[in-house]
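# nightly structure sweep
# worker-07 picked up a monomer target from the shared queue
# config: single-sequence mode, recycle default, output format = structure tokens
# input follows
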Amino acid sequence: MTLKPLKLIFMGTPDFAVPSLIALDQSHHRILRIITQPDRPKGRGRRMTVSPVKKAAVQLGYDIAQPASARGDGFIATCFDPDPDLLVVVAYGNILPATVVSRLALGAVNVHASLLPHYRGAAPIQWAIINGDSHTGITTMRMDAGMDTGDILLADRTSIRPDDTAATLHDRLAGMGAELLVHTLDRIATGDMEPIPQDDSQATYAPLLKKKNGEIDWHRSATAIERLIRGMTPWPGTYTFQEGQRLKIFRAAVALSTSDVPPGTVVKGFADELRVATGEGMLSILELQGASGKRLPIADYLRGHPIPPGTVLK
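# output follows
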């Protein structure tokens, strides 16, 4: 079948969306406009910061729009005045009104970082690691009025590696999503696409994570805590407290030992090791950051900030 290039409006904001934008730029399809979130103040100095998608779009030379809201006639004009064939949405950051996603005959295509209907919602990458899943993947779907409930177009899967963090899995899925998106649009352009309705009875959810989700409960198992640390890296991060001072934990490993001391208690290990009792098993903390200071390997941290056995982390 002949592939007729599609005219697209691309909507995206964070780093996850950039590989998809670049892949579309290099494809046969034509991007008419980029829609991304407005510039935002960020950091201690509240300096105005542009989105990763805007940075990439500027470099690629595209027309860029940054509507303050996804509602109203102005937003609809921004989406449809260039007369696109369809919308492509990759982590845009706003829920689109039903009147927008249903307006075009070819609809709106979304790239989601899970194997739908599993992990609908804002944080599918993190929750897949936190929950100890052996694999996850990417789904392209036709958007509808629900939250990640539209018909599935294509999907691709990948194993979750024992050392994967949310950051490493994010980058792998972003690359997979870019490839799958182009393949999806090629299939749509040739008429070779049969959407598959999701089985709502199999749906699971991945709610937005907040900083408070990163506080370690030492009564959980060492395995569960280690997964939490990887799933919350780099954001929102995991932490515990030593005598009221916050310790941010970046890496840890399950230790092959046991102890009958209360969960959260530091136990004797090697000289350059911080081993902590949990509700089931022991956890060896490999990298952390104190209340003031920089991220350090545990041996370097302990040289300047000893944490003796018997200390209780809470």
